[in-house]
Amino acid sequence: MSETVDLKAKLGLDVFKPVGQPHIKIKAGKEKDPRLKPAVRLCPAGLYSKGENDEVTLATVDGCLECGTCLLACGTEVLDWTYPEGGTGVQFRFG
Amino acid sequence: MDKFDVIIVGAGLAGLGAAYSLAGSGLEVLILERGDYPGAKNLTGGRLYVNPVRDLFPGLFEKAPLERFITSEGLTLMAKERSVSFSYSGSELRDEPHQSYSILRAKFDRWLAGQVEEKGIMLLPKTRVENVIKDNGKISGVLAGGDELRADVVIACDGALSLLSEKADLRSPASPQNSALGIKEVITLDSGVINDRFNLDGNEGLAHLFVGEVTHGKFGGGFLYTNRESLSLGIVIGIEDAMADEVLSEVPVLLEEFKKRPEIATLIRGGSITEYSAHVIPEGGFKALGKLYGNGILVAGDAAGLALNIGFTVRGMEYALASGYFAAQAVLKAKEAGNFNTETLSIYRNLLEESFVLQDLRNFQETPAVVSNPRYFNHYPELIGDLMKDIYAVPSGPKERIYTTIRKYLTLRELWAMFMDMREVMKI
């Protein structure tokens, strides 16, 4: 994510309940799949990043806003995607 | 294992609207909600238009924790270096009952859930529904947190992605073409400052939309709503459009750029961000609707794709509340008939067709195609901005005649292109 946005600080304002098992995973062997690329620019929490040799990584789901944009943009062939377990993840206080 | 009459998945406006309407019917109703509390996962820009749903929920909105009643409407065409704004205010917007209110969903939904629970409806938060249970082709309950919960009928109100109606084979997965991403900040500001800054009195409120450079010419735009003691500021961008442009800034950067615009920076000055949020919005309208009912199941709200963006007004919440209401009526009719099969539940579709819900979506079915015309998001803001620049400019030498100035921008080619765009607008 560009230096212009301090997303960590912004996400730090939100209330999150720890997610047990990560609810989103890049499918094994799909890290270089071009279908993952849009997630890097679209994820509002900046959770996806592109490393060397075009490999997309999702280091953590902490900070996930559960919008579903990556699911729509990348699809289920490259992502395992569910909502986090009940009572975990982001809890909006204003919404 | 207990069996319920009705299981509602999702305590958003559709789910709570359905539950509220079923209260007192004697039916045993269970609402399942994956958040810590109702509203914890819910988001709006946003504003609720009360007129279409006032009679469906008598007396409800008078006591509801709404934010401000909107008395000032506005639209800004935002070019790269300039912007042209239009604002509307009318006495009818100040008259009671008020047409629309800004709203914060965590607050509102939690309150509405309280009203529903007071009426004897059971609500189970912190419970994620994983799947539907099917017996001989009929949906007969849901799988939630590893437990099988059974009911005569399930109402899927699980939001824009609606994984549940997908699993029930009622719809295909939400698509990038028919969905937008909305991201928002809630910015706390003293109510007096809000009133002075936006020229509001008491609990009056403002709603303002921005199109153009906000999304770098992509489908979408910016929004600003005043709440009692905060502003809701954010952007919406079409997912397919955003995917297609590989040089487009990251979405969080677009919001930051929007906030730094001089037109916006002064409006949020001194405010502090208290929440950052994101949500997907259905944009496909009537043509993208999936099946609204099946054997033992109904779909309502965003899950059914019931949202409508016609440029000046963006709506979804009243369709959610109303579809919840009509889902409840369909369930009551089915109970009377003694079965919950596809044919009996088809009354739901009829009720929606007779109401503003599907009449609006049908009447505006061409809107998604019309409002996604890229010229609205790049060409017109720049064109009109440039025209205004020359009209207001006083050069060091003699000033050009107004008509000459106008014709410089509105060439025959331009007028023809405008005419063609207008022909599209005539469809809506």
What brief labels describe this structure?
heterodimer; A: alpha+beta; 3 helices; 6 strands; 18% helix; globular; B: 428 residues; FAD/NAD(P)-binding domain; D-Amino Acid Oxidase, Chain A, domain 2; 7-stranded mixed β-sheet; 19 strands
Q: Helices and strands in order, then pairings?
A:
The complex is a heterodimer of chains A (95) and B (428).
Chain A: H1 7-11, E1 16-17, E2 24-26, H2 37-42, E3 48-50, E4 56-58, H3 69-74, E5 79-81, E6 89-90
Antiparallel strand pairs in A: 1-6, 2-5, 3-4
Chain B: E1 3-9, H1 13-22, E2 29-32, E3 47-49, E4 69-78, E5 83-88, H2 91-94, E6 100-102, H3 105-118, E7 122-124, E8 129-135, E9 138-144, E10 147-156, H4 163-167, E11 179-188, H5 191-198, E12 204-212, E13 220-226, E14 230-238, H6 239-244, H7 251-260, H8 262-268, E15 272-282, E16 293-294, E17 297-299, E18 308-309, E19 314-315, H9 317-337, H10 342-345, H11 347-354, H12 356-363, H13 367-371, H14 379-392, H15 402-409, H16 412-425
Parallel strand pairs in B: 1-2, 1-10, 2-7, 4-12, 10-17
Antiparallel strand pairs in B: 3-6, 4-5, 8-9, 9-10, 11-14, 11-15, 12-13, 13-14, 16-17, 18-19
Helix pairs in contact in B: 1-3, 1-9, 9-11, 14-15
Return the CATH topology of chain A. Answer: Alpha-Beta Plaits
The overall average pLDDT of chain A, rounded, is 94
- SS element count, helices of chain B: 16
What is the strand arrangement across the widest sheet of chain A?
1-6
Distance between the termini of chain A: 24 Å
Question: What does the model show?
Answer:
Chain A has 95 residues and is an alpha+beta fold. Chain A has one domain: Alpha-Beta Plaits, CATH 3.30.70.20. Helix content of chain A is 18%, strand content 17%. In chain A, the strands form 3 sheets. Chain A has a two-stranded antiparallel sheet with strand order 1-6. In chain A, strands 2-5 form a two-stranded antiparallel ribbon. The longest helix of chain A is centred in the middle third of the chain and has 6 residues, at 37-42. With 428 residues, chain B is an alpha/beta fold. Chain B folds into 3 domains: 3-66 and 103-174 and 287-354, FAD/NAD(P)-binding domain, CATH 3.50.50; 179-282, D-Amino Acid Oxidase, Chain A, domain 2; 372-425. In chain B, 34% of the residues lie in helices and 27% in strands. Chain B is built from 16 helices and 19 strands. In chain B, the strands form 4 sheets. In chain B, strands 1, 2, 7, 8, 9, 10, 16 and 17 form an 8-stranded mixed β-sheet that branches.
